[in-house]
Amino acid sequence: MPDQKALEKNTAAFKQYIGVYADTLGAIATFPPIKGGDKAELRPSITDPDKMGNFAEITFETRRLGKDLLGIFTAKYKVDLYGAVSGQKIQPGSDLEVRIRKRIEDLTGVSRGDCELQ
Fold it and tell me: 69-90: b or e for each residue (b if 16 or more CB lie within 10 Å)?
């Protein structure tokens, strides 16, 4: 059983760190309770929503696994740059097209030239 005072000290340190980070970003921090760790969610402030840039939400999480500590960071964006790029067609003969084709051929065992990318 973990020492309760040590857990409370770790939680206080986590909240202080996130509080400073949120102040720097101009974000609003909330601390939803979770079992076995700490969690913080940062969202843009209503008064200055552009101060966090393209971030719509940032989540920090720590989970204790025995004596180990696991840190999890996730981010949601206002504009999904990856989705915007993924919808574009790959140019035939481009370096990217050649690398993707070779990787698919290597993984699947398809003969060279039998792989068609869309």
Answer: eeeeeeeeeeeeeeeeeeeeee
